[in-house]
Specification:
This protein has about 300 residues and is of the alpha+beta class. It has two domains: about 5-80, Winged helix-like DNA-binding domain superfamily/Winged helix DNA-binding domain (Arc Repressor Mutant, subunit A), CATH 1.10.10; about 85-295, Beta-Lactamase, CATH 3.30.450. It is built from eleven helices and ten strands. The strands form three sheets. A six-stranded antiparallel sheet has the order 6-4-3-9-8-7. A two-stranded antiparallel ribbon has the order 1-2. A two-stranded antiparallel ribbon has the order 5-10. A hairpin with a 2-residue loop joins strand 3 and strand 4. Helix 7 (about 155-165) packs across helix 8. The relative contact order is 0.13.
Length: about 300
């Protein structure tokens, strides 16, 4: 059994680390006490850093002692957004997942009690998954959707399910709210959700939620493969890959920007079966001609 770390083995917390922690805390906290608690820094240290940030325009304080991000933060954010292509960022990250796993990858945004696919990359295999960008799918039957419900918490997930109902998509779809809530607990523990032919017969998926800079759930990312074929890696390993936190944050930013800049990303609900049929028999061979309805 390994002993405690020696002093020289404990990573040192630098002044830059402390400053960045305070700057990050400004996004959700305004009181010195809360910023100190959120960063784990003494109040005197947090106050000194806030004073320095304010002097340089990265923070500001009102007459009641409340802190907020300063104009320099907004200027910097504006410059970065002007050069950021959310589609390119999402494409780069999704291509990395496809290359790592060999499976089809979907990026979905959480909008209006459902998931809207805003990006898709097909696996290098001779068939296509029955999905398309712009399609909306249900929360309780998909890996992305269940990951989102888990991130929302039991109470909010129950309210969402009460609004939408738990209509089945396949014989394996969860239609009992208690069973679904129990599964959400498992998803939180392991970090990813599993769709065992619950949305489309013959298709399995793992998915994880994605978050914005305030840790609010924005949507999710998933890997899909045919149920009658073996996944490229064990399911827990695939789940860990989609649940990698840096990847989730990058995709969360891409999803947020895509929805903000492209109103077409949120579309009226399109029933999956109306477009592509209910079963995975609708898989489209790559060699076949593609109609607009089946275009990803």
């Amino acid at each position: 059994m390994a002993g405690p770390l020696r002093r020289e083995e404990v990573p040192a917390i630098t002044a830059s680390d402390k400053t960045l922690a305070v700057l990050d805390a400004l996004g959700t906290h305004s009181r010195l006490t809360d910023i100190s608690a959120a960063t784990g820094l003494p109040k005197t240290t947090a106050h000194r850093i806030l004073k320095t940030l304010a002097e340089h325009g990265y923070a500001r304080v009102d007459g009641k002692g409340r802190y907020s991000a300063g104009p320099r933060v907004l200027i910097l954010a504006g410059r970065l957004l002007a050069h950021l292509d959310p589609a390119e960022e999402a494409d780069h990250t999704l291509r990395g997942l496809t290359a790592e796993t060999g499976h089809t990858v979907h990026l979905g945004a959480y909008a209006g009690d459902e998931v809207v696919y805003i990006a898709k990359l097909e696996a290098p295999v001779p068939y296509q998954m029955p999905s398309r960008v712009g399609m909306s799918v249900r929360l309780h039957t998909t890996a992305i959707g269940k990951a989102i419900l888990a991130a929302l918490g039991d109470e909010e997930a129950a309210r969402v399910c009460a609004r939408t109902g738990l209509r089945p998509r396949t014989p394996k779809s969860l239609t009992d709210q208690r069973a679904l809530i129990a599964q959400l607990h498992q998803i939180r523990e392991r970090g990813y959700a599993f769709d065992d032919e619950e949305n489309e017969t013959d298709i399995r998926c793992v998915g994880a939620a994605i978050y914005d800079h305030t840790d609010r759930v924005m949507g999710g990312v998933s890997l899909s493969w045919l149920a009658f074929s073996n996944p490229s890696r064990p399911v827990p390993e695939l789940g860990a890959r989609v649940a990698a936190r840096p990847r989730q944050r990058r995709l969360g930013a891409a999803a947020r920007l895509t929805l903000a800049h492209d109103p077409r990303a949120v579309v009226p609900r399109i029933e999956e079966r109306d477009l592509l049929g209910h079963h995975a028999a609708s898989l489209v061979p790559r060699a076949a001609s593609r109609s607009p309805e089946s275009s990803a």
